[in-house]
Design goal:
Blueprint: H1 17-25, H2 30-37, H3 44-51, E1 56-57, E2 73-75, E3 78-80, E4 84-86, H4 99-109, E5 114-117, H5 124-128, E6 136-140, H6 146-158, E7 163-167, H7 177-182, H8 191-200, H9 211-216, H10 225-234, E8 238-243, H11 249-254, E9 259-262, H12 276-287, E10 293-295, H13 302-310, E11 315-318, H14 320-352, H15 357-361, E12 366-367
Parallel strand pairs: 4-11, 5-6, 6-7, 7-8, 8-9, 9-10, 10-11
Antiparallel strand pairs: 1-12, 2-3
Helix pairs in contact: 1-14, 4-14, 13-14
């Protein structure tokens, strides 16, 4: 029996982003929803991520002569409609039949960057053809096989992807109990793995496997040397995703990283660690603007984006909410989610007394008592 998923292509009404998840839960197969919405162990980090933004407060400025705040920004020389980009997530086919193709179109229509996972349900080549003028990043889960790494990086370079994201916090999967209870395995083929299996005769496509089994086949012994390998091979900027400690900053910069991606994988890996927002300011202080910072995990409000930017992020990534929009409305639903974040961010900017993104970044937040 084939996996049945959403075919919706429409505008969606959004009261607030958190409410979308409830709608999606009633619209998806239980195991697939559990995989996407769940997290590691007791899900402490999952719950802590959005709450951590309450640890800082915005002190609003008044009489600042603001009528139309400017959300536009530049990142890696790319002009974006807002400092909000798409986080790489595997297997968009779980939520919509058009998978990453629809997500990439929706993100392009929102005027920002789409990030494709190695473990997507659409190929590097096919995603590159969607709105080819729109910037895209490629997230590499390094394989133990450098032939695979070179093959897929070649595709990213040829496809015009603007940067490579090396995910460093997933050398194995977190202990995700929802997947165990639901006996979840991926129902759809991961297209990049499928293409490689035909070339290499390995016969592995991701279909019928759980995420732990897929991670087990990836490279476990990631090191700083991998940054140089990717940079030298692709000549593209390399971001390391999953940075959660300020102690990693100097080694990463010395190794030649082009950007840091502060993230705890949405609580899906190490439970009992810090909320992503709680470590952002300390990491940004050590970085001291030497390389750009992307931030994600737990972002559900425009004020969360504002606080992340004020704490040192250059752009903020949206993950699960983007998929909720995809499920409920296809590419248009994805655009609607980004537009809703923009609306809330614009309101926050105007009420806080900031004219543009640069002024958000210069804002000093207060500690909550």
């Amino acid at each position: 029996m084939s996996y049945i998923t959403s075919t919706q292509e429409r505008h969606i009404d959004i009261l607030d982003i958190p409410a979308l998840e409830t709608k999606v839960a009633a619209n998806m197969e239980k195991g697939a929803f559990g995989y996407l919405s769940g997290a590691a162990e007791d899900e402490l980090v999952l719950k802590a991520n959005p709450l951590a933004f309450n640890h800082k407060l915005i002190a609003p400025r008044v009489l600042q002569d603001i009528e139309n705040p400017d959300l536009t920004t530049e990142f890696l020389g790319l002009k974006l409609s807002a400092p909000i980009i798409a986080v790489p997530i595997a297997a968009h086919g779980l939520v919509h039949e058009h998978a990453e193709l629809d997500t990439a179109q929706g993100v392009a229509d929102a005027g920002t960057i789409f990030s494709l996972s190695t473990y997507g349900n659409a190929t590097v080549d096919d995603v590159a053809k969607i709105a080819p003028e729109s910037p895209k990043f490629f997230q590499l889960y390094m394989s133990k096989d450098d032939n695979f790494n070179r093959w897929i990086l070649d595709k990213a370079v040829k496809g015009g992807y603007k940067a490579i994201i090396l995910t460093a916090d997933s050398t194995l999967g977190g202990y995700r109990e929802a997947d165990i209870v639901n006996n979840f395995t991926f129902p759809n083929v991961m297209r990049n793995l499928e293409e490689w299996s035909k070339l290499s005769s390995e016969g592995e496509t991701g279909s019928g496997e759980g995420i732990a089994a897929i991670y087990a086949k990836a490279k476990q012994a990631l090191s700083l040397k991998d940054i140089a390998f990717i940079k030298d091979y692709t000549k593209l900027p390399v971001f390391v995703k999953g940075v959660q400690s300020s102690k990693d900053v100097e080694p990463l910069i010395e190794a030649g990283v082009d950007g840091l991606w502060v993230s705890n994988h949405g609580g899906r890996q190490l439970d009992g660690g810090p909320a992503s927002f709680d470590v952002l300011a300390d990491i940004a202080k050590v970085v001291n603007k030497r390389v750009p910072i992307v931030f994600d995990s737990g972002v559900r409000r425009g004020q969360h984006i504002f606080k992340a930017l004020a704490s040192g992020a250059d752009v903020v990534g949206i993950g699960r909410p983007m998929l909720w929009g995809l499920n409920l409305g296809g590419s248009q639903g994805v655009t609607d989610v980004f537009d809703h974040f923009k609306k809330e961010l614009m309101i926050t900017m105007q009420l806080a007394g900031t004219h543009n993104v640069a002024e958000i970044k210069a804002t000093e937040l207060l500690d909550a008592k």
